[in-house]
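Shipment paperwork, digital attachment
Item: protein structure file
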Amino acid sequence: MTIRNYLCFFNENILEKYNSILDFKNNKSKTIITIGTFDGVHLGHKSILEKMKNATLENTYESIVLTFFPHPRMVLQQDSSIKLLNTIDEKGELLDKFGIDNLIIHPFDAAFSNLSAEEFVKEILVDKLNIHKIIIGHDHRFGKNRSADINDLITFGKKYDFEVEQISAKEIDEIAISSTKIRKALLEGNVKLANEYLGYPYFISGKVIEGKKIGRTIGFPTANILLSENYKLLPKNGVYIVSCEIKKVLHFGMMNIGKNPTLGDNEQTIEVHFFDIKEDIYNENLQIAFLGNIREEHKFNSITELQTQLEKDKAFSLDFIKNLK
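Attachment content:
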């Protein structure tokens, strides 16, 4: 995806978002449903989402993506260390682009995990969501202890009168993209590969807060970013080329993620030097896209050496950006 396409990526605004299955209401129209974490809403998800969109257009059904928060691993395995590619709000924006009608983010807790497979199908999919069809991966498992599989789902479909469409292993293998691979690429600092897997530039969301204001003393003032959610995955510490739309104007810059070792800091910070912004933008909520890598984090011998490198980083970034347009 080019940067110009990225500018209009979040413009559909047709999706309705619900924070619980209990909140969902429709006009009794039947629904096409898929279930999953959909972390990253990447190219590997595209087949399912396009099938859903086509099915709803053909039959005037409503589409539903049913997902859960917290991530099931956070609850069942008490794994608080897991980092996700999207916040809930970001996931909604991305699914909106695919033309999905409804996103339900149901609270995942111990009680919900103890529903039997048939209770989940009857009480949730049939009674609450008015299912006509489910489109799901061949390896999907559900119900207490993940005891039921696609064959059980097909059996329940016959019993409760809904269709089951499988995404085959061949179809999934041909895509060869997963959220795990994207996380790995980002943790290695390879945003180019991550963006290829995603089909759009990886981005973070956060508020501009006050920092130590050291950057302005060396000619590189920065906007310090506080992430909107602490479970959001950050790329590996280093320096990146980024873009951000502020008040409908696209700005480019370079971001440093790290501990500023040259300045002797110990806490990780996210700082962006925008090339063409002079005024303060404190308290602005920004979405910042990663376009490319510049270098890894490095401790320099002096502030002067750091300034020299920053000038090189800026020149490299401007040349990269020029080739985007």
